[in-house]
Amino acid sequence: METASPDAFFAKLHENIGGRLFTVTVLDRKAGLAQRVYSSDPEAYPVSGTKPMSQGAWTDMVINRAETFVANTVAEFAIYFGDHALIESLGCQSALNVPVLDNDQVIGTVNVLDQEHHFTPERVQRCQSIVQERRDELVATLRGFKP
């Protein structure tokens, strides 16, 4: 079985999950760093170097407690995302961040953004299910990146 490149794997995951903007991040928890390793819009959200992991309610929810973050309006995510104006300028007014776990520890996130009120409970469940179904491949691919 041929192994897809990380970009091809993430592009296929984006195709399966959907979303106007789709990114994937990997975490280096010991160093406190996060790195975007895939972006469906590399002009607005380039795959780049590392940045410090921020602290706060979003990090506590998604990274520390491994809970999915759902915001269906800009107001719901603007308090957590300093780049909310850029996100909105791309036609995205809702956000979904699904943690990727390896041995009960979050090692990255799958991030999906779309129009306002896009993330119905059914869509959230579907996205979570796809991430879970592809978890082994996600973990292996994310482990290939070293922030």
UniProtKB/TrEMBL annotation:
Boundaries of every GAF domain copy: 17-126
SUPFAM superfamilies: GAF domain-like
Superkingdom, natural source: Bacteria
Residue ranges of the TM segments: none
Entry-linked InterPro entries: GAF, GAF-like_dom_sf
Entry protein name: GAF domain-containing protein
